[in-house]
Queue: 4 jobs
Job 1
Amino acid sequence: MTLVDLPNTTSLDAEVAATAAPSKAAPGSNPTLVLLALAMGGFAIGTTEFAAMSLLPDFAPDLGLDAPTAGHVISAYALGVVVGAPVIAVLAAKVARRTLLISLMCLFAVGNGLSALAPTYGWMLAFRFLAGVPHGAYFGVAALVAASLVPRERRSQAVSRVLLGLTIATVVGVPLANGIGQFVGWRWSFGLVALLALLTAVLVRVHAPLGEPAEGASPLRELGALKRGQVWLTLATGAIGFGGLFSVYTYLASTLLEVTHASPAAIPAVLAVFGLGMTIGNLVCAWAADRVQMPAAGATLVWSAATLALYPFASANLWTLTPTVFLIGCGCGLATILQTRLMDVAEDAQTLAAALNHSAFNVANALGPWLAGMALAAGFGLPATGWVGVALALGGLAIWAISVSLDRRSSAAT
């Protein structure tokens, strides 16, 4: 199959039915408790992913690093996500989903626990890479488990409950970890995340369904996802379109200090507002995706482009910047929409496609700041990060349009 090939509809319907079918439940389990357990893992992951950025000024001097070198620690985690998601999804194709989720959370706990004990820069790089390895696979498998608990028309909302843990982490977990880092020490912040991961493993073991692998599951079948053009288009939509959010988020604190001239004390509050927007956007977009999936994705990208275009004009004043940041954060709901889109186009390679979604978003996490940094190096100023975001959102929208066009052509042909 070529890059523009579309999935066979008969196979797709069978796989969707399998995904939506109830899993073998653990004794006494119920969907609410399962989703809560899965969201706890998202909370732990979100806390370490975003808090590590704010803890950089604390662990850099302790490890004898300058700021740019310490930034490589953040990149090491992202690299772990990009590498770990597809590798684990393929190698663990025959593992029951509950068993896999528990194993991933234990590995995540080990990575963060070792990060708390890292004696040198080299070890810190290795441990942060290790901590990132389970990230994408956990979210991918958790999304499939969540979708299996509810009827097909509510899949996106179930997936959004898992991602709700991550978005709430930006409002609660990150300030908590940052506070612990400042008052007790940065090592305790990573230790806290390790404890949250172990708690997640226990909750998943108690409440989650076993989730036996699908009949005929194999590494080779999972790799079949890479042959499907719509899978690649969906991943590219996220990798490009979501980069705009990160281009602004990465330099938001600097913008507040140097452009808005806000007090340093305002930074945690504005970041929390950003997280609140992510949380609400996640819920609203999930509701829309269960009704009109691809139109919801396109509308979210248009929303992102429009709100990012407001950023350069709003950045001079705290009272205009804060609501704009909230609106930009709402664009985070794209993640949930694309997660369920991948369930529809991956046919019988669900696990790999679902996990790759988070690899794509970590590509966005690297691409957005890199392009924004180029704009800053060219002398355009911090507000210009908003225009970089607009360009990326529109790039994602263009890829989305190609995907929709191919869907329509396929429907017309049948």
Note: The mean pLDDT is 84.
Job 2
Amino acid sequence: MVHVEQLPIAVPLSPDIEHRPDRPLPYRARVRWVDPHTRERRSLSESSATLDQAQGWIDTVTAASLRGVDPGASTQPLAQYGDANMKLALRGLEEKTKDPYLAGWRLRVVPSLGHIPALLISNGAVDRSVYGWIADGVGCSSVKNSLAVLVRVMEQAKRDGIITVNPARVNGWQAEYKKAEDELNNPRSLALRDWDALTTLADALVERSYDHYQGWGSVVTFAACTAARIGEVSGVRVRDIDQVNWIWTVRRQTTPAPGGLIDKGTKGKMARRIPLIEEVRPLVAQRILAVGRNPDARLFTGPRGGRITTAVLRDATHWDEVVAALGYEHLRRHGLRHTGLTWMADAGVPLHVLRVIAGHGSLLTTQRYLHPDLQALVAAGRSLSAHLSGAPTPSRPLATSLQAL
């Protein structure tokens, strides 16, 4: 059957904004129109935190409509648009090139950006996604392929009139990759300095959040004290906590996927155990009490009971603004994990135990958290001398107890 292309037709939209003060996102923007081909009445809506954001969404959809873009297509999620137009986006490429491009699309682009309409993807969203891939240890060639397929899909969206500028054309990401490598080689530089700094951060994030939700402070404190990823904190269930020995068995993490958030196994594909220090036990006990000891209940959720991701935490607490105001511009959500591992290393936790807690596949990764300062080097020399002379060495109760893990 011969394909017959329909010319785009600009349709007038009827916009309105409804204020619902009892909602976390209180401004609902809506546009209505009549489909010029079917004559059916259609509508789209989007909830926003502020009136300006709601109006901005209406302006964006209206501008696309004036260019002849169907409002429904303009708000189509990137994953859906890309899957429908991938053949066009990859035309001209050799088959051997398409395979790594499609892998990058499936494994990185869709989980990071697939839920966002192509029309609303910004340079900043692409920047954060690329940095996220780098921080997760994705290889340079895989980042390159993932970004390349995103560029091609967004270029097709530009040809279709959905967007006017391709936001995926990121310049200088290789320098960002090198910077991230340098940071990951020295993760101690990304850690908070002490307990007071952590509690100050947690309180400030709660203060900036909608309705001052205390749960955000609990998430941040728990993540730092356990050196866990935010997705792993989201995955904690009551039955994962041993309240006798105060051990958390990490079994799952929450992660973005096509269609929404899902729970899956840990990054290392293996369960691991983490000690819960005294400072965090009251917080954990309160959360268990709050959910009624249901063994399958989540310990940490958003204010409406939803699953947490690093992006949810960032947006709900205005993370970037808060850390900048506190002088922690270097701190990202993943920095809470660096904080916990740095503190444990400085407390004298043995390297092989620290590796188990972190879930690192390589001992070299764990070694980056050690701080071989002058005092530690002198102590190491004394320990060797004591060993050679047969003298007893001081006991380390904390280290001994952790070795049992």
Note: The beta strands are 14-19, 27-34, 41-48, 241-242, 247-250, 253-257, 260-264, 272-275.
Job 3
Amino acid sequence: MNAPRQELDFLSDSTESTSTRFVTFIGGSLKRFDLAVTTTSRFYGKKLVADMQNGRTAILGTDDLDEEGYLEHLFSLNEEEAGELRTFLYQVLGDPYFTD
């Protein structure tokens, strides 16, 4: 059976080569992190961070790491777990850049 045809209004549709780093680590809380960190030319220098255990993904730069409670909310972490993730992300995320 064929799906009904719908007219789609694409706002963007592009393909690019990206680089993805897959990292698994355990911190002092014994929480295991399985992450995919994708570098792309989009998102003003921020990176796409995917938690492969809970299926949550966020576009993050170091400026986001200073937002109180942000990582806890995004990835459903307690304060200690978020601190461990924050420590790792400070090492791999670059500073965002904005263009005119």
Note: The longest strand covers residues 19-26.
Job 4
Amino acid sequence: MCLSSFLFFASFNLLLPELPEHLSRMGGGEYKGFIIALFTLTAAISRPFSGKLADTVGRIPVMVLGSLVCVVCGLVYPWALTVGSFLGLRLLHGFSTGFKPTGTAAFVADIVPAEKRGEAMGLLGMTGSLGMAIGPWLGTQVAEHFSLNTMFYCSAGMALLSVLVQGSLTETLPLAQRRRFSFALLKLDWRQEVLEPRVFAPALVTILCLFPFGAVLTVIPDQSKVLGLPSKGLFYIYYTVAALVVRLLAGKASDTYGRVPVLRWSAGVLAVGLALLAWAPSVPVFLLGAVVFGVGTGLNSPTLYAWTIDLSLPERRGRGVATMYIALEVGIGIGALLAGWIFANQPGRLPYVHGLSLACVLMAVVYLLSIKSTGPVITLKPSESGAEPAAEEVV
């Protein structure tokens, strides 16, 4: 599962450093904020469907569909030669992250005991982050030494490898829940099947803490150029290596100390990282901001995943995860749109972009301080046969 996640995240992150300049060459420089925003829009729209399908058809079919979208889009990018077709393809590409991560998180939750959930999500996030780190660097190298089209084909190839790895997995959705796919499953009860109210708290924190990520993805390539960095992918390497180290060393932190206390600290660290990026008078401070921001993300992401799964009923786990991912896409999408609008290709406005992100994270800190710490509580419930007690997770 970790290998599949690595390949998937490397696939679509491989494109990120080169897309803003590519769009500018086509005459769409003013639409840079849409590169991320359109991608996250369709990801958010598809989450309710992927959550329901993960809970009915199966985890693996949902993951395979998401990865196949990446394969198709990677092959079509070289033919998207106008601003309109390029933005339309970004809209389609977003379906990939609407499906693959939802199935992945539900699959891992099925096979990992509650007391090791934070550790497992940390490990999964670590390999995904490794893909996010290697992807932008690899994409820049391929584009510079070969061509932009070769970069697109490499993205499709990595997504295809992710599909092949998924073929080695065994479905974890219980047989009693599985149903054959039909288009009737795509009809949603908007009161019951779109959002999972039990996970409202982690969803709100996700929106506030992922807003900066969308903003950063939008403006960091330009900020790197302004500061004279030799590679637009250098920020992503520092950021992701820091997140990897934290996830490796602190993956168990939320299992030990609780989800909310760890999230309070992680939001505080994110705030410091954003303050450094807003100031960033030189390359060393800029890269220090990348490291601190990465540390905060390394603590934040797996804890939010684990907290969401803690609060989700087992039979609605896919929908609970989908709700959290909808919040993630909303946060990233709004962050990207506002960052592109505020920045407007004027380097002097970069501090305002990071300042707005900082305000969102501080709101998350205030909210987290206002609620009690939560974590999984394991109780015993008699099994249906009445012979032996069976463990059931209750929050």
Note: The chain has a mean pLDDT of 86.
